[in-house]
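Dear Dr. H.,

I hope your travels went smoothly. While you were away I took the liberty of generating a structure for the chain from your last submission, since the lab meeting agenda had it listed for discussion. I wanted you to have the full record in hand beforehand rather than looking at slides cold. The sequence, exactly as received, is reproduced here:
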Amino acid sequence: MPTNRQIILDTVPTDKLTPGHFRQSEGPMPSPADGELLLKTRIVSIDAAARAWMQGPTYRPAVLAGDVMAGYGLAEVVESRSPAFRPGDLVFVETGWQDYSVQPASAATKAGSAEPLSHLISIYGVAGLTAYFGLLECGQPKAGETVLVSAAAGAVGSIVGQIAKIKGCRAVGIAGGADKCAILTDELSYDAAVDYKAFGEDLRSLGRAVAEACGGGANVYFDNVGGSMFDVAMFCMANQGRVVCCGSLASYDGPRRGVMTVPGLVVVKRLTLKGFIVTDYYGGRDAAVAELKGWVESGQLKVREDVIDGLENLPDALIGLLAGGNIGKRMVKVA
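The corresponding predicted structure, in token form, is as follows:
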């Protein structure tokens, strides 16, 4: 019988995440009970939110010391004790960082098929759907408006700007590094990109550069970062603008921050802030995937992926993601 390799969160970090916070163990392959599925992990999605799960409960319980590290991904049904699934089916589910897991059939969603298979994690998975619903349902962009995106070269940001362009908007991205900014404008349809690293701690100059790139002000800000980047973006907003609160990358990897305050510019500019979790909109998932597929197949939307091989590389993959080492959706191929 195959053994089950697992990556365990050995200690909960109080500052920056390091490889020393994890350890690898091996155990027997689990067995499903009635209503459950035995799953073989194929691909694990690497998400910045995984670092927040170590800080406390979010939209899922906190990951505690000694737990198998949590993670969502694509898995293959090995054994089914549910009439809804058969061996060989591919499903989206919280696999955890391990080769095999047993999950309730009610927690799994059939993934369908795609070529390459990695697209089921990126453009047709959480990243693509987050960009789609976050921008279109929460941001509600109108043709001719300006959409500003932070972490624009990341999993979600690399898609948001392209959807904005498809909808007739002007897209401005903020990213770390000249190479990422060049990819945004040369490959991913962004009209302008600002390299925040070029300004160091000079937020005032960064704000001026972003404001200039936005022209008359951003009508929609898609926020993946939070922190000081959120403050910079507020100065660049047009009156009656909409802010899509998708992530808070700046606050994930390090000591817990104090209580957040609402910037005065939210009041002065009469801005609307909306937070969301992508599963809020899964009632429209099939229609969204169909539209995304149409854009990909027509060449209107390009897919950027960062695929790493090997379960043992999961800790480094997450640490690198938190440091901004990826372009597009990062994932780890386990099998």
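Two observations you may find useful: Residues 3-122+304-333 form a domain with the Quinone Oxidoreductase; Chain A, domain 1 fold (CATH 3.90.180.10). The chain has a mean pLDDT of 95.

With kind regards,
E. W.
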